[in-house]
Amino acid sequence: MYAFDFERPSTIAEAVAALQDEDAQALGGGQTLIPTLKQRLASPSKLVSLSGIAEMKGVSIEGGVLTIGGGATHAEVAADACAPLAALAANIGDPAVRNRGTIGGSLANNDPSADYPAAMLALGATIITNTREIAADDFFQGMFTTALEEGEIITSVRIDVPPGGANYQKFEQPASRFALVGVFVARTANGVRVGVTGASEDGAYRWSEAEEALNKEFREDALMDLRPNPAIMIEDLHGSREYRAHLVRVLTKRAVAAIG
User: Fold this and answer.
1) pTM metric for this prediction
2) Tens digits of per-residue pLDDT, 199-218?
3) Which helix (H) or strand (E) holds 180?
4) How is residue 172 annotated by DSSP?
């Protein structure tokens, strides 16, 4: 580690002002940033902690709309969100990670193997920042890349609870508990949506071919002749492109079966 300034503002306005300083970096739960600092892969001159901002806390459901503060921890999402998203959050990392990591930090980081991006895409979530609202389809723009601009903060996430149910299936990497592949299927008011994480070289994405098939007939057999393109998949020591493409289809079928 090295010397840097540290601020813990109590309001969004104070945080935005602090982030105007050159090389300032927002700090959510620190599950990615702190290890990055320890390895000297980043060197911000100032860390602006978002953990003290009360208006970014809390999880609530009202009128079929789920609202999650950007500073809500994974543990809080697991305790208070709608069942499919709560189950997803309850299986992130370990207790230490779930009690420190935040949904806003995870979405802003957009790790290609993180769980939340698949859910946000499948649920048609809206990412709310200090300046605007961004549809999930427009928010994720590739590995570790989002639509966020410099100094922009995720203040909350808004989701219409899917009337037809939803389910997340995850094939996890045992050491990290990140998703080797994860698939979230939701029967929303606007049709079936399928979000995939951990698989594509372009990061989280929607499997449109599966959505089209499932909107015609919501059952496992509708996916029988479908297979994601292996050419766009990640290949590493944990799995080949073909293996990940196979997992996407298998996990999608399991999610469909679970929703029924």
Assistant:
1) 0.95
2) 999 999 999 999 999 999 99
3) strand 179-188
4) E
